[in-house]
Specification:
Length: 147
């Protein structure tokens, strides 16, 4: 399948892209404040989605969300996946494979990204290098992808 990429404006668009092209049984979380965005019973995975307006080679993940995903997946026997889109593509990360690679640090960041209040708070964050993820757009543009 050849796919022409255009940036996603929000997680709902990213969710639809993933459901349409990769994970047909993807189900949204019932709770909008949940520590994961969607679930696949076929792939036994809990998934966190994030859309970035700018491209970075290292994509940020909050420690609180990471810890909550790892705990949920350990408790339920599922796989924690983090999927992040930027203007240049979409990357999926298997968090269990990256546990030893993530270095955590505190940074002052906006309390809420998409809301009018721009106050900052100290957050513990780590970075995922796109080289450690699977480029989903590249996957759709290859005639015979290899994973």
């Amino acid at each position: 399948m050849i796919y022409e990429y255009s940036q996603f404006a929000n997680e709902q668009q990213l969710f639809s892209f993933i459901k349409d092209n990769f994970i047909e049984d993807l189900i949204s979380s019932d709770n909008p404040t949940s520590r994961y965005d969607c679930y696949s019973s076929y792939f036994k995975s809990h998934i966190e989605l994030k859309c970035r307006r700018k491209h970075y080679n290292e994509l940020i993940i909050e420690k609180g969300k990471y810890d909550a995903m790892i705990k949920r997946c350990n408790d339920e026997g599922t796989i924690p996946i983090y999927i992040n889109s930027t203007p240049k593509g979409v990357w999926a990360f298997y968090l269990y494979e990256l546990e030893d690679k993530i270095e955590w640090e505190y940074r002052d960041l906006p309390k809420q990204t998409d809301f009018s209040k721009r106050e900052t708070v100290s957050k513990e964050v780590g970075y995922l290098n796109i080289k450690d993820g699977k480029d989903l757009v590249l996957f759709l543009n290859e005639s015979s992808p290899s994973f």
